[in-house]
Amino acid sequence: GADEKTQERMFLEVFRENNEKYRKRMELGDIAEGTVLRWERCVVYLEEFLKLHRNTSDIPLKDVTLPLIDDFELWLRTVKNCGHNCAIRYISTIKKIIRDAVNFKWIDRDPFYGRTYSKKKTQRENLSEAELNAIMSLDLKELPRLEMVRDVFVFCCFTGLAFSDVSVLTADKIVTDADGEQWIRKRREKTDELSSIPLLEIPRQILVKYSGHRKLAGTDRLLPVLSNQRCNGYLKEIADLANITKKLTTHVARHTFACMSLDNHVAIETISKMLGHANIKTTQLYARMQDKTISEDMVKMRRKFDCVMMN
Question: Is the dihedral of CA 268, 270, 274, 280 positive or negative?
Answer without folding.
Answer: positive
